[in-house]
Amino acid sequence: MIPVTSSFINIHQKLDKLRIGLKKIKLLVENQDINAIDSLYLLLKDVEDTFRKNQINEYVQLASYRSKILASQIAYDRKVPLKSDQLDTVLNILPSANQTLNNVMKPLEDRIQESQIIIKMLVNKAYDSNMIQWNDGLNFPDFIHALWRLFLKHENFKQQTLLVLDRITEDDALQLLAKEVNQAQVSKQY
Predict the structure, then answer these.
(1) What is the number of other CB atoms lying within 10 angstroms of the CB of residue 168?
(2) Helices 140-153 and 170-189 sit at what angle, rounded to 10 degrees?
(3) What is the pTM of this model?
């Protein structure tokens, strides 16, 4: 289990951007662009830092990929490594790096998706029970926090709300709740 040290949603969004970066690096390799080597090294370093900061153990795998890149750049027998050898190294690392990233992202995606489903159900149940009453004197973030506290205290919502907190952080839950309430209000208006 991944310890809760940061927002799962923020981690997922950052890793998703990095996954797109891997696709761009693959295009660089296909175009024989030597910048692919440095780009992959920096991207792996960024992902590794994110993993390490959030106590995700796969950072060790990423460090090994970076060491392979460094090894490909070292001159053997005082000869400069060939560009094609370096690009081949990058091409060989890309699938493994992508798989490592996907392996980390899948549980995050599952946690977020399961939480979205539960929160959507909670919001629909609250609307059906007329528990969601917008007060014009209350700003939206305060309203969301009040609704969340209601979910945590009310017997009909408490168990499912705690299930959400087992999967994601409270900040993530509040973000998903705000999104769901906003969507529900928009759909109720039309």
Answers:
(1) 23
(2) 110
(3) 0.78
Q: Which pair of structure tokens corresponds to residue 146?
A: 């009040």
CA pair distance 77, 52, nearest whole angstrom: 35
- Taking 3-state DSSP, the helix, strand and coil percentages for the chain, each rounded to the nearest 5, stand at 80, 0, 20
Residue (of 164, 190, 158) closest to 177 by Cα position: 164
Is 3 inside any structural domain? Answer: no
- Whether 59 and 131 map to the same domain: the answer is no
Examine the domain organization and report whether 97 and 124 are in the same domain. no
Q: What gap in Å lies between CA 13 and CA 11, rounded to an integer?
A: 6
User: For the chain (length 190 residues), average pLDDT per consecutive 10?
Assistant: 65 90 92 91 91 88 89 65 80 93 93 96 91 76 92 95 95 95 73
| Residue linked to tokens 């208006």 | 189
